[in-house]
Amino acid sequence: MSAGQWVKKKWRKIYLKIVREKASPEYVARGWSIGMFFGCLIPMGLQLFCSIPTAFALKGSKSGAVLGTFITNHVTVFFIYPAQCWLGAKLLGIDSSNIGSKVDAMIDALKNFSLLHPLDATMKFLNVAGDLAAAFFVGGAIMALVFTPITYVATKKTVIAYRIRVEKRRRKRLSALRARAQARHQRAKKQPNEA
Fold this sequence. Notes:
This protein is mostly helical and 195 residues long. It has helices at residues 3-19, 25-41, 47-57, 62-68, 77-92, 99-111, 118-194. The longest helix has 77 residues, at 118-194. It is 81% helix and 0% strand.
């Protein structure tokens, strides 16, 4: 299976999960937008601790709140997190050109923790980590504010459109069944008359 086929298959699975949920379109959309919000704002690994209780509190789809957080996963974080940090750094006035070097400095501070004076190492780590954390959360907040309403509207419209299509198909099948039943009934009426 090619990568394109795999992505198409996964996308179809998510699409069907969204549109087939037995709830109102608003309920489904609310859950997915909650998942998207926390998927953008909170680091991976902590998102479910926020999205599930929020889905209960705001009466949104629990499965949507869980699956919506997967906007950040083991593949997408390599694109989303740097963009998020870059955006946050730009907004905070932090030099974003050296975010990579700040990550390296943070890793070095952790590696050399035992070699340096513990207080110096801790301060160096917090200084670098503080800039990155601030950029991460500010960038994440902006992305969440942009993508959460888009997710809500898109999900709601998608669910409504799917249900309209399903209802049209159901009516068409029902109409065809009625037409066949009427035709059988007409034939049955004609046969005794012909005899």
